[in-house]
């Protein structure tokens, strides 16, 4: 992130960070020119469009770069190497203080009691503890007939956990969302059965960016006496989270989604919500989660949460402006463009767009200077079409033309202006080579064409 003070007169390369102190303010002890108070752009996020090995990053739903201030906080905390569960000496007490201070910082941001928050390895583990832990707790109390409600666009961590429980006799309803990606509240209400124990709903969808009406869902759950788990991995830092204002029993978080380190997350468990452990050991986290708590990662997660919450409202407005400008230019310059998901009830960071009559993977090859996701690459092991886009009724051929473009803290207006110019040119170039586009322009209804397969 910074060069050595001996290498240049002004030690920060403009291609590495956006703000830097002058050489005269170098800290002689650390020999690093970057003030921890500066807003730095990590050096690995290139603004050099000619360098294809350092593409402009537009995949902020997949992960976010760790904020330099977070890295600093983590590094500083390594001076404390004690085990936070060693309660007989100062080293352990110091580590405990760091963990509990971090817990309190995160709890204050989401408006909960710190005693209601446990650290986990991430949202996947938090989702598993929530769903499996509720079922296990009921089973331990003699309940065997149970029903869970979720939707068909949830993260795999939720869907696969529910599939596993189905193998063990638990009934699961996978509600279909509407064409705009949102859950119909009446359908949710009607899906509740006498044996329903839990609903698990993602607040912000990672592919579409759509925001589910969690407050209204919570009121229904409260009225019906069922528990509500919310996967908020994509929510913290993008929308306001106030657990004192909504009825939620369990909520999952993941630090690397909001500029924190990977490998650390949290789970909010509302007081009196019964959850049994699913992994066994020392039961370090409130008797529910076993394993030595990673002190440094807790510190990093708390620092990331602080930073992202401080800038959340301003960043939301900035993202709205960039999204509108980008979409206005693309839709006014190209025909047959479809924005997937509700345009109002969504985080503005996300644009999921289908470009008809081309292949998404080919478009990505044309845009090698940008790191983003194709709707075909929905998991690390398959190129099957996105199940989320399929769930909202997008035609399979159109799914394969889709890109997920997600902006974030280090996305600049120049980045998006360049991206818009490049994607318009790339789509036009690919369509010029497409026989399907020629047929469409000639007035052929491609849905009525009978295609023959040669063997």
Automatic annotation (TrEMBL):
Aminotransferase class V domain residues: 56-419
Cofactors: pyridoxal 5'-phosphate
Reaction(s) the record says it catalyses: (sulfur carrier)-H + L-cysteine = (sulfur carrier)-SH + L-alanine
Pfam families: Aminotran_5 (PF00266)
Gene3D superfamilies with a match to the protein in the record: Aspartate Aminotransferase, domain 1, Type I PLP-dependent aspartate aminotransferase-like (Major domain)
Higher taxonomy: Bacteria, Pseudomonadati, Pseudomonadota, Alphaproteobacteria, Holosporales
One Gene Ontology term of the molecular function aspect: metal ion binding
Protein name as catalogued: Cysteine desulfurase
Keyword Metal-binding: yes
PANTHER family noted in UniProt: CYSTEINE DESULFURASE, CYSTEINE DESULFURYLASE FAMILY MEMBER
